[in-house]
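User: I'm preparing a small set of examples for a lab meeting where we compare how different chains pack in three dimensions. I only have the primary sequence for this one, and I'd like the structure in token form so I can line it up with the others. Please keep the answer compact; I'll paste it straight into my notes.
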Amino acid sequence: MMGGDGNLYRPPVKRSVTIAGHQTSITLEPLFWDALERAAEQAALPLNALVARIDAARLESADPPNLASALRSWLYANARQHDGQDPA
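Assistant: Understood. Below is the structure token output for the 88-residue chain.
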């Protein structure tokens, strides 16, 4: 179980990323930014490239969520997959 030291419950942070040559702002909690940076590093990709991949997959869904929600969902599914669990 995660500790209650306060680091888990920090307010969201807005960052700019470039997707397909266009800048966009994404607001995520620091926990998710950290996880996204680790996932990009593990995939040997720049953060913008990983976000662009997730965005492209998001846009293929029948009812795409907003990008921040898609990133959180992708991170959760990715963590489950790495733990050997079904990502769904």
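A couple of notes for your slides: Residues 1 and 63 are 33 Å apart (CA to CA). The first helix runs from residue 30 to 42.

User: Perfect, thanks.
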